[in-house]
Design goal:
Blueprint lengths: L7 E5 L8 H17 L10 E6 L11 H5 L1 H6 L9 E5 L4 E10 L16 H5 L3 E14 L3 H8 L3 E2 L5 E2 L11 E4 L9 H8 L4 H7 L4 H12 L1 H6 L2 H17 L8 H23 L4 H4 E4 L2 E4 L8 H9 L2 H10 E2 L1 H23 L6 H12 L6 H7 L1 E2 L1
Parallel strand pairs: 1-3
Antiparallel strand pairs: 1-8, 2-5, 3-4, 4-5, 6-7, 6-8, 9-10, 11-12
Helix pairs in contact: 8-10, 10-11, 11-15, 11-16, 13-15, 14-15
């Protein structure tokens, strides 16, 4: 029996109430995350409260507040697989997604136990709140790029507006919006997080990689185009932008180790290929979904994410699966035939870089050129073309 779709929320932070609203929450969450990693905090203490402030122009109650508060029951339910619920937050130029841990109508500013998890921002603005959201982690999806925000929010469906796509133009009323996400994206999957960023929280990872917003915009406008850039997973886009920024900044600095460029490009490819393989096999027979990875039988949809070598083996290793991928995916012939040797080469260079072995700068430059498309179409552009048929 298919589970009903999970509901998520879309909210807007209003810069007129304080331009540093998002910064205030991120900084407090960062403080708790770093304390946890230092061993002075329990993991349950890593959270921050976000208040849905009531507009001074609205006197009537929020009409769908009972539905919003009901999400707390869904979060607390232990019936079946726990669902990952999200709060998407935007000021129209940037977009963040937060891992929702709880919802309450009680004013947490009055709770002494919650005080250290409530940003001082709320004392300063001194406005009533309709409700409060407990956030376990926050990821940056788009930074300072309104067209990219529009594209990302368009993936969500507004349940109170006939399941129409969320739109910044005329659709941001009676916030927060109650939405669903048809692709079932899991932004805070623990296995994915562990593989990509280790034991850190996403809010820490983003803080370490500030300043890539302009690079993402440049890649979208001048290399990939809006459609193909939008086909890439947001995490893949982030790794690509970081790698490209590192390379452009340090390519003439002979003393700089370019290994990090290889590692980030490899992570971008790994994220994207895992996502497409999982989507393509979601409706396949169980025999096609099973593969041998490091001596163990795994389900390519339910297990993972998988490393580059395992991905290459899964794509080409079973003739029936390979044929399924060719038929199931747009640009599937390239994915099934041309991609596996590319993954093998990237794995070889990435493994050397990740283990501290020196990687020839010229080889890094050649690899980067083939991935991004300098003098050729580019592997990443090919990969961005791959989607469900």
């Amino acid at each position: 029996m298919t589970a009903p779709p999970s509901h998520h929320l879309v909210g807007v932070w209003n810069p007129s109430y304080g331009a540093d609203a998002m910064d205030a929450h991120v900084e407090l969450l960062l403080r708790h995350a770093r304390a946890y990693r230092a061993g002075t905090r329990h993991e349950d203490d890593v959270h921050v409260w976000w208040g849905k402030l009531r507009s001074p122009h609205r006197q009537s109650p929020l009409p769908h507040l009972p539905e919003i508060l009901a999400l707390d029951d869904e979060l607390a339910s232990d019936d079946g697989e726990p669902r990952e619920l999200h709060l998407y937050l935007t000021d129209y130029r940037s977009l963040y997604v937060a891992h929702l841990g709880g919802v309450t109508a009680d004013d947490v500013r009055d709770d002494p136990d919650a005080a250290e998890h409530v940003p001082a921002y709320y004392r300063r603005v001194d406005m009533p709140a309709d409700c409060w959201f407990q956030l376990w982690d926050i990821r940056r999806v788009v930074l300072d790029d309104t067209p990219a925000v529009i594209a990302e929010l368009g993936r969500l469906r507004n349940t109170r507006y006939h399941d129409q796509r969320v739109s910044l133009y005329g659709g941001m009323v009676e916030l927060p919006l109650l939405v669903t996400r048809p692709d079932g994206a899991r932004w805070f999957d623990e296995r994915t997080r562990a593989r990509l960023i280790g034991d850190r929280h996403w809010v820490e990872f983003d803080a370490e990689r500030a300043g890539t917003g302009e690079m993402q915009r440049d890649l979208r406008e001048n290399r990939f185009g809006a459609a193909l850039w939008g086909n890439l997973d947001p995490a893949a886009r982030g790794f690509i932008a970081t790698a490209e920024q590192l390379f452009r900044t340090h390519r003439t600095d002979a003393a700089f180790d370019l290994s990090a460029v290889v590692v980030d490009f490899a992570k971008a490819v790994e994220v994207q290929v895992n996502a497409r393989l999982r989507e393509a096999l979601a409706g396949a027979d169980a025999r096609l979904r099973r593969a041998n990875v490091d001596g163990a039988t795994v389900d390519l949809v339910e297990d993972g994410p998988f490393a580059l070598g395992a991905l290459a083996h899964a794509i080409r290793g079973e003739e029936a699966r390979n044929g399924w991928l060719r038929r199931r995916l747009v640009h599937g012939d390239w994915f099934a035939a041309s991609l596996p040797p590319i993954l093998d080469e990237l794995r070889e260079v990435r493994n050397a870089a990740a283990h501290g072995e020196p990687v020839d700068r010229e080889r890094v430059a050649q690899l980067r050129n083939r991935l991004v498309g300098v003098g050729s179409k580019g592997t990443l552009l090919d990969l961005a073309q791959v989607r469900l048929a």
